[in-house]
Amino acid sequence: MVARVIPVERFDLVIFGATGDLARRKILPGLYRRWKEGQIPEGAAIVGAARSEMTAEAFRASVATALDEFLSPRDIDADKLADFLAMVDYVAIDARGEGGWQALGEKMREGVVRAFYLSVAPALFGDIAQRLHERGIADRAARIVVEKPFGTDLASARALNAALADHFHEDQIYRIDHYLGKETVQNLMAVRFANILFEPLWNAQFVDHVQITVAETVGVGGRGEYYDHSGAMRDMVQNHMMQLLCLIAMEPPHSFEPDAMRDEKLKVIRALDPLRPGELVRGQYRGRDGDDYLVQSGNPDSRTESFIAMKLHVSNWRWKGTPFYLRTGKRLKSRASEIAITFKEPPHSIFGESNQWRENVLAIRLQPDEGMDLRVMIKEPGPGGMRLKDVALDMSFAEALGNDLDIPDAYERLIMDVIRGNQTLFMRGDEVEAAWAWVDPVIAAWEARDDRPEPYEPGSTGPEGALMLLHRDGRRWREIR
Ligand code: NAP
Fold first, then answer.
1. Helix, strand, or coil here: 429?
2. Distance (Å) from CA 409 to ligand 1 centroid
3. Where residue 346 falls among pLDDT bands split at 50, 70, 90?
4. 19 CA distance to ligand 1 middle (Å)
5. Could you confirm whether 254 is annotated as catalytic?
6. What sign does the CA torsion over 172, 177, 182, 186 have?
7. Of 178, 240, 313, 348, which residue is the catalytic one?
8. Burial call 38-48: b when 16+ CB within 10 Å, e when fewer
9. What pTM did the predictor assign?
10. Which helix (H) or strand (E) holds 143?
11. Pocket around ligand 1 at a 6 A CB cut-off
């Protein structure tokens, strides 16, 4: 099945940090794939910018190398690649310096969409925004894209918002959370709001609890030193997991317009209760032969968590009484991300004691193998009487929509949304601040107690305390497959 691709307007896209890891691994390959699919019009321009002095020719060669490295060979088509590279240009600019800006300004054309992707450290956002504005390189219609981490606490997030707001309006700012660009995450919204089936059950009366898991098999590896200043709460919960929670818990917006969606997500964050004592578990993987957080972080006394699990309460009429359990960690058993909505038991069983009832669960898999399954009870086939069995109504998107369906990477989708001027899948400034406002006191509390994370075996499902968190409530974590 061939996906329908709607071309976007002509654009000038400037990528600051174009020689960096993210640009090489995600942004440039994503742009090439959209070009190959016919979504990028002739006459679009992609301008790389970074401090390194190099010619446009040398930059094009480095882009070709990156595509070769990060795309599958079946993605590369020699003719298309040559045409793509012909759109690519380069200008050497130090975000904090004065050189290069005029040359960049001269490359910008009238009558096309201007977008500036800041794939650089957040400390440079303000400098770049200021220069783009003051030198007239970014007009009122220009779009500015910023990467995570958007702050490390409420104060720094506010400072970043203010630095951008000095030169750009909120409707020009695209704060990326790439989880929102994932196909399944958007499908979660389709399932909720394009079907009558689930919405009547989507509340505390029928939902027993919700689990959100983001499990990684990798450790902190070469990013250990950076990660040690962050930890799972800042790196995963404040942004990605909080966004997933919002999409599950939000009220139906009146439309799919950016502010309608974001208003509803914001209400969820504001409805989160402060974390209660005993409803948080932090862990650190501790193994042999260097497979150890303290070794990899280079900080033998580190108190930073590589795993976190917690129980959240959304205090509103819809969700009062339904806990949301979140867990995420590195060096776990498998790489798996999913949201699972577990429904309550039917009020009465007509099938007798011998039939063991199993919960109805709607599981939304984000990775790997994006898809959904719904576990329902059926009668076991055969003459053995009325014996019940739970089975999965399974839908792997790749299977359901054709095995050759090429699900676009989240970044591809999001970059095209920037060009379309659609902010629905981007975070608004007040959402980010509200998330930090919830997270800050939690971190402050564990820092004040000087808590040490609980050790866990690399390759396990996390620390014992995380199991107990659910066990106390008579529940179990879903298996990390
Ligand atoms: P990186 O590999 O360190 O690349 C940084 C880029 O910024 C390089 O192109 C560097 O080139 C350029 N740069 C540094 N200082 C500059 C300056 N003063 N003026 C202009 N350009 C400058 O970093 P990255 O991993 O690509 O990450 C970029 C941003 O995305 C960061 O905010 C990061 O947190 C975020 N992010 C990254 C990932 C990822 O997977 N990598 C994922 C999510 C978010 P020169 O040295 O030539 O200037």
1. helix
2. 20
3. confident
4. 8
5. no
6. negative
7. 240
8. ebbeeebbbbb
9. 0.94
10. strand 143-146
11. 16-23, 50-52, 93-96, 119-122, 124, 147-149
